[in-house]
Each structure stands twice: as C-alpha cells, then as structure tokens.
Amino acid sequence: MHPDNPQPRTIAQVADSVRADALIAYPTDSCYALGCRLGSRDGIDRIRSIRRLDDRHHFTLVCQDFAQLGQFVRVDNDVFRAVKASTPGSYTFILPATREVPRMLQHPKKKTVGVRIPDHIVTQALLAELGEPLLSSTLLLPDEEEPMTQGWEIKDRLDHVLDAVVDSGECGTEPTTVIDFSSGEAEIVRKGAGDTSRFE
C-alpha cells in the first residue's frame, strides 16, 4: 500500500475484511500492530494466543480522532488537555472505560482500557473507512526483544495465523509510550516512542 496516498480500493477491502472478523497486522507511527473488529471475541482470542497474553493485558482501542476516543473512555478536564496535546502521536493512554467498551476488553479489576490516536496516514485512512476503532495490540512476539518492521517478514512468519498484512513500507521498532491516567494523575507505565517529559 502506498505510504503517502493509500489506495482507497485497497483500504476498503481491508476494512471489509475487518468487519468480517479478520485479524490483520498493520503499520502505525510506532510499530506494527495486530488489529481486529471491536467486538470480535475470535480476534481477541487469536491475539492472546499469538502473543501469549493473560487476561490482565490491556488491549488498545486505536481511534481515528478525539471525538471517537471520547465515546470509549471518561476524561476529566485536566486529563483531556494532556491527552489532546499529545494526539495524534505515539502514546497509549489507560483510562476508565465507558459502557461502550465490551467487558471482555476491560482490565478485569480496574475497568480501564488503553486508547490511542496514531499519526500514520495508512492507519488513519483505514480507521476513517472502518468508522470505528480497531481493537489492537503491539505485534511483539513472545520471547522476542523487538517487533518485526517489514510486512513481508510478518507475512512470512505469521501467514498461518493472520488473515491479512497491510504493508506500506518499513515500520518503526519502538512501541508507544504508555501513560496511565486511571487515577487522575499521569503514571508512566512504559517509555516508548512518545516523549515522556510532559508527563514527568
């Protein structure tokens, strides 16, 4: 897929496959991610299996814009300003989930969910076509230090467990910076591609 002018027909095909319960690998402004439809139990099970995740893992809702993000998490004014100033960008924010978020996606004890708005042309085009967030997790395989950066490499290794790989050229290796705002105060959970200085 063209990195600067993604072909609308291809984007539409990928969105249709996601709606039909496909599990995809797609590029973001940090690194490749696994993504599926918001309510896809099969997709969630497959992501857990590929990454060997337990039920305490925070999935991320990758949103097109702030308006969409606001449907799925609760943000007070201070948090709103901090999140707004950092999006779109390589940040994941952990926030209290609204009722729009399926229970199976929420952290079992905290009732929180991760959200992000990526600064990536291809991902933004896909989200616009889809009209809802992608349920996502960083494509980092168990026992590996760094994520894969090339679409062909992902297809080579994971073709048997994925339905599609969106390839728009090389991707980064650094996952997002994760900021937990669930208590109202910023807590840096993981330092990654996004600058943490504004949250320290």
Automatic annotation (TrEMBL):
Sequence ranges assigned to domain YrdC-like in this UniProt record: 8-194
Tree of life domain: Bacteria
Protein name per Swiss-Prot or TrEMBL: Threonylcarbamoyl-AMP synthase
GO molecular function, one term: double-stranded RNA binding
PANTHER family, A to Z: DHBP SYNTHASE RIBB-LIKE ALPHA/BETA DOMAIN-CONTAINING PROTEIN, THREONYLCARBAMOYL-AMP SYNTHASE
Matching Gene3D superfamilies: DHBP synthase
InterPro entries noted in UniProt: DHBP_synth_RibB-like_a/b_dom, Sua5-like_dom, SUA5_domain
